[in-house]
Fold this sequence. Notes:
By secondary structure, this protein is an alpha/beta fold. The protein has a single domain, classed as Spore Coat Polysaccharide Biosynthesis Protein SpsA, Chain A (Alpha-Beta Complex), CATH 3.90.550.10. It has helices at residues 26-37, 53-61, 73-76, 79-94, 139-148, 151-157, 172-187, 199-211, 262-271; strands at 14-19, 43-48, 65-68, 100-104, 109-111, 124-128, 163-171, 216-219, 225-227, 236-238, 244-246, 254-256.
Amino acid sequence: MFSHPPRDPADARRLVLGAAVGFAPAQVHAFLESLHAAGYAGDVVMLVGPRDLALARYLRARGVTPARTWFIRRLHGPIHAYRFELFAAYLRKTLARYDQVLVTDVRDVVFQAHPFAGISDPACHFFLEGDRRTIGNEPTNMVYMRAFLPPAEVERIAACRISCCGVVLGGAPAMAAYLERMAADLAAVPFAVRRKIGADTAFHNRMAHLTHAVPVTLVENNLHVATMGIEPVSTYRIGPDHLIRTVDGGLPAILHQYDRIPAFKAAVDTRFPALR
Length: 276
């Protein structure tokens, strides 16, 4: 039904890292099928839990490497934050194999084009969220900043745009530095607040706007990644091919948080029917 683009030989030195701890195969199906349909042929490594046996079998059958892990929330924090420490450890051992790395959410991400297409800048690419909202006027993000950053940094960062840590990609050395910095910041979170969510978002945005601890290229929403959670629905149109474009005809390579809008989820489900 949909023709697949040719495979890029450069994919042999590319890596996609995701976390699916506790997921069922159906929750990673659209992610993997869309990644393949977009023409990506490089390595994919996905964190799985010790009991995720069916998921691990499903991943292996699709050429994905399951990386078995365990965590205790009171010690390590939520898995969506702790994953950055695990990714850092993995890339520390394998860095020489790769030129480019994508770290991404899984359950609410799909691909409409090759994830690395047009990305030649070796810096980490941080993607801004929609509607030009700032951290200071988005209540959830301010909760995260106040929980994990000192007051002086909260005041400075409030006027900055929101950068989402759910999709980050770039040259392998810069991405390794990013993951090491995230891992160090997360490991330093006091045990009293380690269970709370949002540390990853706070530290990611601090790097983006305040410390510039790693090389960063900030990218506007909907150019390469469409982070759709707070973007007005009217920004997008669903085409007869069930791809989701911006109203000016742009085709974001990666859709993030698409499942929050029923019509967009239905379009993705049409392209990649759910597992039975």
